[in-house]
Specification:
Order of helices and strands: HHHEEEHEEEEH
Strand order of the largest sheet: 1-2-3-7-6-5-4
Number of domains: 1
CATH architecture: 3-Layer(aba) Sandwich
Distance between the termini: 50 Å
CATH class: Alpha Beta
Structural class: alpha+beta
Number of helices: 5
Low-confidence stretches: 14-56
Largest sheet: 7 strands, antiparallel
Number of strands: 7
Length: 221
């Protein structure tokens, strides 16, 4: 087999950098109540003031992200990313408890495939719902995926660089306070064409279903 140079877009993907906005992911607690040393302590009553902050915790099911490289079964990996090492490669994260990502990629013959699976743990179901809605708004042209998590969305796009086509599918699923994000793409370096939309979309959805199942089967908080 002859060596073919990868397009710049795919070459860049071979060294992914996970960028986290620490403020967006850090788990925080409410501010501690303090008293002014210059004032006398107010008399205690049997009932809490109506203006006192609520201490009720928001709903969430998962305290940590599961191991992403074990979330997709070997048979599926062999089908979606032929020739890839099934162990995958976990991408370094600033806080593995809150976000974990695994990648698989391989060039078999002239066909290149790449798969990413990412789990993002948020403070509450409400926060995850908001993030989910924000993300799908930025990815127009896709559609809902019924029966996947609490809500799920998939979209497929085609790009061309130096006459080489790449087709990429993204699935975003919300399951309680976790977002599961799948990225799956492919190219043919002989024909310069990309795999069909249906192939990429179905592959991304299949991976998403297995990733959500792995999350649900894992340890809950």
């Amino acid at each position: 087999m002859r060596d073919f140079p990868l397009p710049l877009a795919l070459t860049a993907r071979l060294s992914p950098v996970v960028v986290l906005a620490a403020a967006g992911w850090a788990l925080s607690s409410g501010p501690a109540a303090t008293s002014d040393a210059g004032h006398k302590e107010a008399p205690k009553t049997d009932t809490q003031s109506a203006t006192a902050p609520s201490t009720t915790a928001e709903s969430k099911s998962y305290a940590a992200a599961p191991a992403p490289c074990g979330s997709i079964v070997v048979k599926t990996l062999n089908s979606l990313v032929p020739g890839a090492k099934t162990a995958g490669k976990e991408i370094r994260s600033t806080d593995a408890k809150l976000r974990r990502t695994c990648s698989w990629n391989a060039l078999k013959g002239y066909d290149y495939r790449w798969l990413d699976v990412s789990f993002e743990v948020m403070n509450s179901d409400t926060a995850a719902q908001k993030s989910y809605k924000d993300r799908i708004t930025d990815k127009s042209g896709g559609g809902a995926v019924p029966g996947l998590g609490d809500a799920a969305y998939s979209v497929v796009n085609l790009t061309t660089e130096d006459k080489q086509q790449t087709r990429e599918g993204v699935v975003i699923a919300q399951a309680s306070n976790v977002l599961v994000v799948i990225t799956y793409n492919g190219s043919d370096f002989e024909s310069k064409k990309a795999p069909g939309t249906d192939e990429i979309n179905k592959g991304a959805i299949k991976a998403a279903k297995e990733a959500v199942a792995a999350l649900e089967d894992g340890q809950k908080s």
